[in-house]
Design a protein that fits this description.
single chain, mainly alpha, Arc Repressor Mutant, subunit A, Tetracycline Repressor, domain 2, globular
């Protein structure tokens, strides 16, 4: 016998937090392209129109999901070493948090950061200022580090560098063809981050570098 409305389990009350968490779960399972208002509504057993009470549109929804993905990133402390050690750890933790959530990292390439992401960015700025970087260079540096975080998270998801076909047509590429895709994602990301931090360290205060 079919369940009546009285005996059927009540649906959980909708909330912005629940909607955003569901969107992030969909992205984790099936990728950012699968995150639509209709799909999220279906997962919540409701109508898509109901979601618009809590989020303006899909763009706002995926931005909030991206922010949720980095909400639990632990900020390094003084026990984690120098400003450079802490910055490296923070970048790696943030990239790992995003990589664990499908390809949600793509949102960080163009979207406006939310409160959780701003918490991470604020700590990056603080560490860079501790290193003695001028304000303008700090602003540019966090932009560069943000792009690195997104790229590292996405490369971790895809399993490494893309294969390049027909390198014989490109002499410079042909010379390094055997190593173009060498290295696991973590090793590649660590090397790239090291290059970035080397450059930032050279621009740090001489007194901090000597310390």
């Amino acid at each position: 016998m079919a369940s009546s409305a009285r005996t059927r389990p009540a649906r959980p009350a909708l909330s912005r937090a629940g909607i955003v968490a569901t969107a992030l779960a969909v992205c984790t399972a099936d990728g950012i392209a699968a995150v639509t208002m209709r799909r999220v509504a279906r997962e919540l057993d409701t109508a898509a129109a109901s979601l618009y009470v809590y989020v303006a549109d899909r763009d706002e929804l995926v931005a909030a999901a991206h922010d949720l993905a980095v909400a639990d990133v632990e900020l390094p402390t003084s026990a984690d070493g120098s400003w450079r050690d802490r910055l490296e750890l923070l970048v790696e933790r943030t990239a790992a948090a995003l990589a664990a959530r499908g390809d949600i990292a793509v949102v960080g390439l163009t979207g406006t950061p939310g409160p959780a992401a701003l918490r991470v960015i604020d700590e990056m700025v603080r560490l860079l200022r501790t290193a003695g970087l001028p304000a303008l260079q700090c602003a540019w540096a966090v932009d560069l580090l943000g792009k690195h975080i997104a790229a590292a998270a996405l490369e971790d998801r895809t399993g490494g560098a893309p294969r390049v076909d027909d390198v014989e047509s490109y002499p410079a590429l042909a010379e390094i063809a055997t190593v173009l895709t060498d290295g696991d994602p973590a090793t590649r990301a660590a090397w790239k981050l090291g290059v970035l931090l080397d450059g930032l360290e050279r621009r740090a205060s001489p007194q901090v570098r000597r310390g």
